[in-house]
Give the backbone structure.
Amino acid sequence: MRIPRIRGERAERVLGAFSVALLGVIVALVVFVFGNAWPSFSHNGLAWFSSGGNVQTQLGNIYHSPSNPAHYVYTLHAWPLLYGTALSTGLAVICGLGLALLGAVFLVEFAPPLLKRLLRPSVRLLAGVPSVIYGLVGLLALAPLIDSNLVSPSFKLAVAPVVQITGTGLLLAVVILTLMVTPIMLALIADALESVPRSWIEGSAALGVNRWRTMWRISVHTIRPAIAAAVVLATARALGEAIMLSMVSGAYPFAPNPLDGLNFFLEPILTFASAIVQNADGLFSVTPFPQTIYAFAAVLLVSAGALSFAGWLVKQPLRRYGIR
Amino acid sequence: MSATASAPVSRTRPRESAATWPLADRLGLAMCWAAGMFLTLAAAGIVVFMAIKGVQYLKLSLLFEHPTAAVDQSQAGGFLDPIEGTIALTALGTLIAAPIAIAAAIWLSEYGRPVGLARLVEAGVDVIAGVPSIVLAIFGLIVFSKALFAPLSISTQGVASYGRSFLIAGITISLVALPLIVGATREALQAIPSHVREASYALGKSQATTIRHVLLPSVRPGIATGIALGMGRIVGDTAIAIVLLGNTLQNQPGSGIWPFDYLRGTGSTLTTYVYNNSPVGEGNAPQKAYAAAFVLLLVVLFLNYSVDRLARGGRQVTAWSR
């Protein structure tokens, strides 16, 4: 098709300039965040990611650092934050994947029409509820329940010198985070399930395979790349969740110990994103405290970039099959 | 995509009874039901819980009173300022995001030359969509604290920029809405068959004229969907508002002529108000938090509903959760 190009050139250049400006924003994002976070990384080296000492105390020391540039305190061992982020994100995405996969299969294949009409808006609603409302419900309605039913007073007393157990913690964080990432995955998986070629399903049914196995063996197998894409998207969402987690995760830089048995799930965590929110007031102060907080943002930025790339990678096979 | 939306036909033999299936398959089916019911009940639970608390604590006067600092939550005033803040921030963010996003979407799907650059921009929009809003907030704070941007906020020392104001938060929060508007507009543009464009070219119209007078009018529902999605995101975003809006109890206008004094000042939104009045915040007035959260939920539900209507009007279902 030959496109006439009279007087079109200027429009193309203007629209193109807007688009390229977006690339400029990304370059600025990377340059500014990393440029400002660099002192924190360079002073600590790889020890930044290691464990050792109490993060809360270290942040306090950084906050009260002497104002003489030669004596800036940068020492930080952010392992509890890394661990807390990985733990909450990982558990929520795993739980959410199970829920989303089963929910999507239900929605596409097994739900009676009435439930289908109910489930779709429900999922959309769960995806749309602002995170601060999730946080509020978790903090005011669910945390007291966990506190009175699951936390044993003896455990509470035993760990009181180290950390306070109040019902907010890993369990509540994972439960609510699961509720937040499930709709994202469910929407993607359900869309993909519906685009599986009909003839494949009919072929399977014609061979006498029942509906469940057809769904599981044919449809779900076909859309594996879409499931991977959904997981990537959900991980990105869970990593970046700041407000809800700073409300319901206990927001104390503690590394839950698996040896504590079931109490493991009641111990508080702090993620990078919620650490930024918790210390937002400190951003008013001068070097070196903001630099340390920027470093948290830099870690999140790297993860987000890596996840975008992973998302692009897993979409490639989808393009080949022409599914989405 | 439209298979189940339009016709409730099962894609396999519906008459077959699950009772004849092997135990494992029946267990799987039961788990499917459980997952579906759980999600439905969870959504219903949140709405009902918030509605009960909202009806319990929301008084009409709260919507028209300024918040005040008080130890007792019955004295803490209403949330007029946060409502104004949410409206101002949403309007600002959408006004900034929409033109840029629509331009980028048109360029990507109608011109897209050179191909490499178009791919790069495409990836860039994806990256912006994936960056957590708290990181965008930090980015905004770093950039707008530079002295160059001092006019955008109330300057404290006259030299350095304060780095927190409606303008600054609005510019930063537009990045949250931008990918959604780009996505919805592109999807709508791609849904227009190429013979529509060819018909316009055949009449001797240039590409720019075709875009302006043929394509843009017909993608209006798509653009509206994207804007409604973006507004929903902005209304619900807390991280950027907490870091970049100053998080003050009342909206504090700076100096200057009318809209700009307001926009250069600091303030709060419904989301930061809820956060501040939850037990982890400084206000700790849970009743006020519930009331404000209920208003917030109603706004979000309304925006969700308009996305639905718009998408149906545009005879295509756009990404229904993002």
About this structure: Chain A is about 70% helix and 0% strand. The mean pLDDT of chain A is 89. Chain A touches chain B through 108 residues (CB under 8 Å).
